[in-house]
Amino acid sequence: MAKLNVNGRVREFEAEPDTPLLWVLREQLQLTGTKYGCGIAQCGACTVHIDGVPVRSCVRPVSTLSGKEKIVTIEGLSKNGSHPVQKAWARLDVPQCGFCQSGMIMAVAALLKAKPNPSDDDVSSAITNICRCGTYNRVKAAIKVVAQGGNTKSAHLAIQHVDGSTT
Ligand code: FES
Ligand code: FES
After folding, report:
1. Per residue in 122-140, pLDDT tens?
2. Per-domain residue ranges for the chain?
3. Domain 84-155 belongs to what architecture?
4. Residues 31-58, mean pLDDT to the nearest whole number
5. Number of other CB atoms surrounding residue 95 within 10 Å
6. Residues 22/43, Cβ–Cβ less than 8 Å
7. Backbone angles phi, psi at 29, to 5 degrees
8. Going by CA atoms, what residue is nearest to atom 3 of ligand 1?
9. Ligand lying nearest the CA atom of residue 57
10. Contact present, 60 and 20 (Cβ < 8 Å)
11. How far, in Å, is the centroid of ligand 2 from the Cα of 123?
12. Same topology for domains 2-77 and 84-155, yes or no?
C-alpha cells in the first residue's frame, strides 16, 4: 500500500506507478470534487494543491509523490465552504454548470495566497483554466472581491462592472 497525505489525513491506495493522481483521488479516495476534463493539462478542471502549488493532477503520476507532500483538494480547502474564494464565488454566483469550478477555485486560491492583490496580468497568467460556460468575467470579479477584503459593496460593484447586472 502506498500513502498520500490528502486534506490533512494519511490515505492508503494501490495503483500502478504511472496512474495520474487525479484517478487515485477520484476512484480510490472518493474525492470526486476534482474533475476530469481533458487529461492533457490544458483545462485545469483537475487542479489540486501540492504543498500549496496548483497542480494539474491528470498528468501527475503518483510515482512522483513521496507521500510526504501535503495535497489539498476542493474538499479540503475549507470546512463548510468558508474559504474567502468560495464565499466570493457564492456571493457573485460565479458557477454556471459548475464542472470546471472546483479546479478554478483551487487555482484562484493558490494565486491569492501567493499574491493577495494580483494585477490583471497576474490573473491572466496564473488562471489559465478553461470554462466552457464562459464564467471568466465573474471569476475575475470574484478575485477582485477577495483581494479587496470580500465586502458586499465591492461585490455589487464588481458584478455591475462585469455584466451590468444588479444582482
Ligand atoms: S483534466 Fe487535467 S487539465 Fe484538463
Ligand atoms: S461553469 Fe460550466 S464549464 Fe465552467
Report:
1. 999 999 999 999 999 999 9
2. 2-77, 84-155
3. Orthogonal Bundle (1.10)
4. 98
5. 19
6. no
7. -100, 0
8. 41
9. 1
10. yes
11. 18
12. no
Give CATH for domain 2-77. 3.10.20.30
| C-alpha cell read off for 103 | 479546479
Radius of gyration for the alpha carbons in the chain, expressed in angstroms and rounded: 16
Return the pLDDT at 91: 95
Ligand 2 mutation pick, 46, 47, 74, 100, max ligand atoms within 8 A of CB: 100
CB distance 136 to ligand 1 below 6 Å: no
Average pLDDT of the chain is 94
CA distance 6 to 133: 30
| Ligand 1 nearest atom to the CA of residue 59, by list position | 2
User: What does the pLDDT look like over 18-42, one tens digit per residue?
Assistant: 999 999 999 999 999 999 999 999 9
> Which residue bears the cell 458586499?
152
Q: What is the pLDDT of residues 92-113, one digit of tens each?
A: 999 999 999 999 999 999 999 9
Instruction: Report the nearest atom of ligand 1 relative to the CA of 57.
Output: 2
DSSP H stretches of helix in the chain: 21-23, 84-91, 101-114, 120-126, 136-147, 152-163
Distance between alpha carbon 142 and the CA centroid of its chain, in Å? 13
Q: What is the pTM of this model?
A: 0.93
CA 139 to chain centre: 12
